[in-house]
Amino acid sequence: xxxxxxxxxxxxxxxIQERVLATLLLDPxxxxxxxxxxxxxxxxDPPATxxxxxxxxxxxxxxxxxxxxxxxxxxxPGYRLELEEGQSDLAxxxxxxxxxxxxxxxxxxxxxxEILRSALMLWRGSVLSGTGGPVIEAxxxxxxxxxxxVWEEYLALRLSLGESAELIPDLRALTxxxxxxxxxxxxxxxxxxxxxxxxxxLEEYGKVRELLVEELGVDPxxxxxxxxxxxxxxxxxxxxxxxxAPPPPAAAAPLPAEPPCTLPYDLADFTGRExxxxxxxxxxxxxxxxxxxxxxxxxxxxxxxxxxxxxxAYRLVGEYPDGQLHIDLxxxxxxxxxxxxxxxxxxxxxALGIPGDRIPDDTAGRxxxxxxxxxxxxLLILLDNAAEAAGVRPLLPTGSGCLVIxxxxxxxxxxxxxxxxxxxxxxxxxxxxxxxxxxGTERVxxxxxxAAELARLCDHxxxxxxxxxxxxxNRPRWTLRYLAERLRDETRxxxxxxxxxxxxxxxxRLSYQALDEESRTAFRIxxxxxxxxxxxxxxxxxxxxxxxDAEDVLExxxxxxLLRQPDIGLYSFxxxxxxxxxxxxDADDPSGxxxxxxxxxxxxxxxxxxxxxxxxxxxxxRHRPTGIEKSSADLPDLGDAELAQSWFTQxxxxxxxAVNLAERRGLHRYVVCLSRNLVxxxxxxxxxxxxxxxxxxSVAAAKRLGDLALLGASLSNLGVACWRLGxxxxxxxxxxxxxxxxxxIGDRHTEAHSEGTLGQFHSLLGNxxxxxxxxxxxxxxxxxxxxxxxxxxxxxxxxxxxxxxGRHEEAKAAALRAIELQTGLGQFENQFTxxxxxxxxxxxxxxxxxxxxxxxxxxxxxxxxxxxxxxAVTLALSADVDEHLGRPARVPDLAEQALELVAxxxxxxxxxxxxxxxxxxxxxxGERVAARELHSNARELAxxxxxxxxxxxxLSGLADAAGDEADIAGHRAAAxxxxxxxxxxxxxxxx
Length: 991
Prior knowledge:
Elements lengths: L3 E2 L2 E2 L5 H12 L4 E3 H8 L8 H15 L7 E4 L2 E4 L7 H17 L3 H12 L13 H27 L7 H10 L4 H13 L3 H19 L5 H12 L40 H11 L8 E7 L5 H11 L8 E5 L12 H11 L11 H12 L5 E7 L2 H4 L10 E6 L10 E5 L4 H12 L1 H6 L1 H10 L4 H13 L5 H8 L5 H4 L1 E2 L2 E2 H10 L3 H10 L7 E2 H8 L3 H13 L4 E4 L2 E3 L2 H9 L1 H4 L4 H25 L23 H24 L3 H18 L2 H18 L2 H18 L2 H18 L2 H17 L3 H18 L2 H18 L2 H18 L5 H15 L2 H13 L7 H17 L9 H11 L3 H17 L3 H18 L2 H14 L3 H18 L9
């Protein structure tokens, strides 16, 4: 026993699974009680757990067989196996035998013989070989007896048609396997006699007589004895009919004199699909395999499968001189039921010239006649718009001379021996070519940008592109830009893609209606996912099911091309398909309840998952109650930092979109809580604009909730974002408000954080005394609260303040204290910033060797997750210290590496600071032009942010690098004014 799916042999499991499946296969459609299956599964004395093992075996088989839940059913006290036509070779064997009997009854003997030959070719060995068990062995014996009976009928038909010598090899093989079977022995004797081999015929009688006497103690039966006597007498009655010369084909009717061609017309403006067409032609012309060539195109509705198949068919006409047939199976045709197999066969047979009175009434007879008619012929058959494998199998030829091209919206995985080519949307280049071909190159050349946008808004779907260009052809006053503007409105976009009988929405609706109810619901709900890509865990959360069930649904939607798969484990919608799916909610979810519940499930999952990821990545962060219960959905593996970081990175876009989704739906608590977790990731990765946007959304949502605790946390995060973005005034206001909120609710942690943030902003704005007050207060609070990590962070800010102020000994002391606290916590990776601060302090004191040692320690603590702006500052200072020590520049140049880092993705604060450091270095190296450019950039950045200390150093650097006396004086005066305002004496400034 073997099971196959899509050309791959199935692993059916162990002995119990095979015996249970074999027993069910022997009686398809019937309910077999568990007791019957137990009897079949065990040779003798089944164990006490036999019933349980049978149920377990059925469950296992459902998993092993693709679509097993749709084949193996639990029914009352037992199980039932339901098979479609062609899914079982035993069932197909019975169908063909019945068709042969019908043909023989109508005196169509050649046709009957050919049908029986097809039935016997299905056998590849002994039935249920090796499956074992007395129940199955008894059934196997019965089936084998039936097979031998069909062989005898087949050989009798061929003998009656005048054949003889050509039958002898088969007959000798059969009699050798079944030496006591008198009917086969008699047929061998008759074939030998009619071939002029009378002595051998008589010898065969002697052999069987001797065997029967020896084995059974009986003589041959009277029928065989009568045949023996007739051969002895050379009776004229045994001569048989004269064979036809040459014998006619098995199907009695010849093909028409003119080879039939029922292909649809080939589009004159067919454009694009060069790669897919070349691949289709390559596979269609591939030689050397048994059976017919079957090449299939699958793709979403409107992707141009039929047009491509027709184009290929016309190119192949010369290869198939006996005809080219097309039939639309109408699997997805508006207002139509799919064409039945019997109707399809009737149409195909008539196209080949078979008279109506010769076509059997039953499907089995038509299938047999169709295959017999195609024997030895070279035809191209285009089966268009197929929906189910069961409707296609009877239409497939059995010989190797034919080519079948099949199109379907879903990949019919139950069809074996098929080469599948999936058709996606067109490339932008192909879309542009199609627009130009259908609309005219001059019109497109006049509005190239609008033409490109039009193709994008059509989602590069051929049907949508053709409808859009048809509308433009019929409305010459419309411009491409005007239509593009109409299509930008997502709520109306699908309405625009309708022209006559063609409609993108109607095309997609047919695919939707062909789904089962579970898949329809999933299709709608999945469209609510706000991100581009959906993974299995997010889908499971949306759908409210387990990840394996979610994957099954996703794969079903992928099979029918309502989803696409950009990467393994990820699924996404085409824009038009998403718009269509979301439009279904009005009709199928008028109350909106389905969507509300699904969205909350997704947001709850994301909140729970981000909490878990943050716990791993940021273990020192403060836990705050969210007021939301944890999600019960399956979470991905977030067990270590690498896994958690990888998940956060992959889901970052989806998480940002989830915050926006929660904001649009008024789910303010989710906005705040999700944002709080997400800002850790955004800050660490340097995604500063997103950090700021999420921070503002969180503050607004917290205010709408009226939750002061959440508002305080949101204001703290916004303050950090504003600092990183260089928006100091906005950040200062957020920090003041955060401090006020924290004081009102007695939240000392947030109060301490707000004090630190205020100190930081005053430091950046050059208000050093105010900054010192706030930072000292923050450190005092943090010491009281016993949060050494936060205290260490504030000490690094204090060290930076002192360094900017020129108070280098105090800067050194603050940095050393921060390093001491971090060492006690075992957080060596966090010492990277503190060692850099310490190096700045040593540099200010002129202790260059100590500065170099501190920088070595800082660089040793770098990891992949380090902020690029902070890394750039460390590298720039390292290059500067090397030069002061007279060391040659390293390879690669650390200063250039620093500039590259801040140019790509870093805070403007860090960029201004790095450009000033490298500018001073370049000036000392004699590169005044480069120095002026760097200081000029730094001045512009720092001035735009009111970053006073770096603005002053930029002006000072410009004065040192300028060549014009007036410029030197102007820059020097402006720099001195700023330094004096901040209280930075000349002898305490950076060198």
